[in-house]
Every structure is written in structure tokens, then in C-alpha cells.
Amino acid sequence: MANTVFCKKFQKEMEALDRAPLPGAKGQDILQTVSKQAWQEWQLLQTMMINEKQLNLMQPDSRKYVMEQMEKFFNNEATDKLAGYVSPDDIKEL
């Protein structure tokens, strides 16, 4: 049976990540508090943010911004909106 974790994003027991997605204490915290599904959803949003905002992750400000947005995402706080993005939920309403 797969390992589970109480996911802070979805507030329920869910399948855990196989390994820490980041090095150090931050990676261990994510491993212990974020589900595989939440991490996959974050990866999609992160990719869109990097592309839309043309972030260069070699720059400390860009990395700081992405980490701040990640914290907001996992804590169910509002993240920055992406210009031109239409969520699948919005399409269903049209």
C-alpha cells in the first residue's frame, strides 16, 4: 500500500510523494505535509507562472517569488493570477 500524508492543501489523507522534491528542510516539510496530487498541481501552476511571467530561475528574485507562490498555493491562499489563463471551471460555466 502507498504511503499517505495529511495534505495541507486538500486537508485529508492522500498519497504521499515518493521522495522530497527539494533539498534540505523545505523538501522534508513538503514530503511530510503535501500529497502527490497537490505537488503535481503545483508543478503545473509553477510551469505556467514561469512561462507567463518569463521568470529566470537563475535570478534570486524569481526563485523567491516562486517559493512565495508555492507557499500560498499549499496554504490555500490566493496566488497571482496569470494573464489570459482561463481555468477549466470557468469554461464549464460559459
From TrEMBL:
Keywords: Iron. It comes from the Bacteria. It holds the Pfam family Iron_traffic. InterPro entries: Fe_traffick_prot_YggX, Fe_traffick_prot_YggX_sf. Could be a mediator in iron transactions between iron acquisition and iron-requiring processes, such as synthesis and/or repair of Fe-S clusters in biosynthetic enzymes. Belongs to the Fe(2+)-trafficking protein family. This is Probable Fe(2+)-trafficking protein. It comes from Marinomonas vulgaris.
